[in-house]
């Protein structure tokens, strides 16, 4: 299962190229889609996503891993989109708990629950951290957040030590397509889906302490195109 969470840079570059080719900002689209259809799945099926994005012959859409985002977290994604694109606000950085701290808390939680440290969980969490650090600047930010990113992140600072649950949750919208570039056996796919769902349930259970209730207003922020 460890290899599934590797090759992150290559996968993200492929996804970024496809997003650019399609001319679609899936962050914004995901928010609007969730807002207009709150009861629908946050991750569309392969064929529908292909039709929506205008991407043809995309191998990543043929066998998408399905990640069922809990309803409360779907609403969190909608609120996140609205705060930034409609209310011109930003997540105040650095966040506490950070992505690193959330992953550590989950590892401690699983260790206590299972009575031991499981290698599979550790590998997946390391993979999530790696995906997050590489994906954040390329496919997880809205345009209005890019200046903040440049100010907050330097060469020796990883995004996972600065950003928090709000941006980590966005990664789960993108993961099905990012993992679509990795050859996954059916049995392994089912196990991975289950472990990712367990992590999302942990985030949902700690929603009040992990997520901000409101964002900060931006200084001098204009009402430019939201993407």
From TrEMBL:
<dbReference type="GO" id="GO:0000123">
    <property type="term" value="C:histone acetyltransferase complex"/>
</dbReference>
<keyword id="KW-0156">Chromatin regulator</keyword>
<dbReference type="InterPro" id="IPR026541">
    <property type="entry name" value="MRG_dom"/>
</dbReference>
<keyword id="KW-0804">Transcription</keyword>
<dbReference type="GO" id="GO:1990841">
    <property type="term" value="F:promoter-specific chromatin binding"/>
</dbReference>
<dbReference type="GO" id="GO:0048586">
    <property type="term" value="P:regulation of long-day photoperiodism, flowering"/>
</dbReference>
<dbReference type="InterPro" id="IPR038217">
    <property type="entry name" value="MRG_C_sf"/>
</dbReference>
<dbReference type="GO" id="GO:0005634">
    <property type="term" value="C:nucleus"/>
</dbReference>
<dbReference type="InterPro" id="IPR008676">
    <property type="entry name" value="MRG"/>
</dbReference>
<feature type="compositionally biased region" description="Basic and acidic residues">
    <location>
        <begin position="1"/>
        <end position="28"/>
    </location>
</feature>
<feature type="domain" description="MRG">
    <location>
        <begin position="48"/>
        <end position="215"/>
    </location>
</feature>
<dbReference type="GO" id="GO:0006355">
    <property type="term" value="P:regulation of DNA-templated transcription"/>
</dbReference>
<feature type="region of interest" description="Disordered">
    <location>
        <begin position="1"/>
        <end position="57"/>
    </location>
</feature>
<protein>
    <submittedName>
        <fullName>Protein MRG1</fullName>
    </submittedName>
</protein>
<dbReference type="Pfam" id="PF05712">
    <property type="entry name" value="MRG"/>
</dbReference>
<keyword id="KW-0805">Transcription regulation</keyword>
<keyword id="KW-0539">Nucleus</keyword>
<dbReference type="GO" id="GO:0006325">
    <property type="term" value="P:chromatin organization"/>
</dbReference>
